[in-house]
Amino acid sequence: MEVYHAFLDKMADLEYRQKLKxxxxxxxxxxxxxxxVVKWNQPMFTHNGTYIIGFSVSKKHFAIAPEAAGIxxxxxxxxxxxxxxxxxxxxxxxxxxxxxVLLEKLITFNIEDKAECSTFWRK
Length: 123
Fold this sequence. Notes:
The chain is 41% helix and 24% strand. The chain contains 5 helices and 6 strands, in the order H-H-E-E-E-E-H-H-E-E-H.
C-alpha cells in the first residue's frame, strides 16, 4: 500500500481519499498475488507483468479501468450497479457505494483472461 501513499496524499478531499484508499486496500487484501504500481499518475495492480486494473480520480467520481475487454465481459453487472461507463472506464460517483462484487468480477476476469498474456496491455 505504501506505493500509493504519494498518490493518495495529493487528494484534498479526505472523504474521497479514504474511499479510494479503502478500495485499494480491499484489492490488495483479496488479491495478494497482484503487484502494486503507480503509472501515468494512476494506482494500478498488475500480475506477472500484465495490467489487471487501475484507478483514477476526478471531482465527481473515481474511475475503475479494467481495459475494454473487462468492461464488455461485465457490462450487465456494471449496469446493475448503476455506474456510468465508457469503452475504457467505469465511473463510480463519490456518493455511491462501491460494488465489491463487481470489482471482484472485473479483477478475476482479467487475471484469468490474461493468464497467458505477455504484454502489459491486451493486443
